[in-house]
Write a structure and sequence with these properties.
single chain; 188 residues; mainly alpha; 2 domains; two-stranded antiparallel sheet; 6 helices
């Protein structure tokens, strides 16, 4: 019987694909991820670009004003409302087809900013009612009473404590409603 020499790890040939050019090459060490110095240069350049983009994104996030963050949070809340009420008719007129649907506030943001992110105050509303009829408040109220009852609608119409949102609060609101929107979109 022929004797085999002992297995030597160093002599083992390991073939891999280059991360840049996708050609196969023989690895010289376990840490090697590219095939040539040119590919190593391109790989390093790509990594540096990725780091610069991440750094720029962080710096831009720090420069955002409270107003900008409020706008982003409102966009996230409105997108959630559209996903939550998908397929339902307009809360004011009952129209469900042939028109663009918005997230309409029962109590306007300008008149009652403390309810700006409250989901009881926001429902799917056709663009006609929301923009041209100023929210069609009489019909909106009737349907809210049918939906939630008089007590909750009176609570919405009552006085509320003013809230001032910090940057972290607004970022958290945006994150929460973005996640909720994704959940509702997966249910559809």
């Amino acid at each position: 019987m022929e004797e085999r020499p002992p297995f030597n790890v160093c002599e083992r040939i390991i073939m891999s694909k280059c991360r840049i050019c996708k050609d196969e090459y023989t690895k010289r060490s376990m840490a090697q991820i590219v095939c040539s110095p040119q590919c190593a240069y391109e790989y390093t350049k790509a990594q540096n670009l990725k780091k610069r983009k991440a750094d720029t994104k962080k710096r831009k996030e720090k420069l955002k004003t409270v107003g900008m963050l409020k706008k982003e949070a409102q966009i996230a809340v409105n997108a959630f409302i559209r996903a939550r009420d998908y397929g339902k008719p307009c809360i004011s007129c009952g129209r469900s087809t042939g028109c663009k649907m918005n997230a309409g506030h029962f109590r306007a943001v300008g008149g009652c900013p403390e309810l700006r992110f409250n989901t009881l105050n926001i429902h799917l509303q056709c663009e006609h009612c929301n923009n041209f009829l100023s929210g069609n408040p009489l019909e909106y109220r009737k349907r809210l009473v049918n939906l939630y009852g008089v007590d909750r609608v009176e609570w919405l119409e009552g006085k509320h404590e003013l809230t001032s949102y910090t940057r972290d609060d607004l970022r958290r609101i945006k994150k929460i409603f973005t996640k909720r929107k994704r959940i509702y979109e997966n249910l559809i």
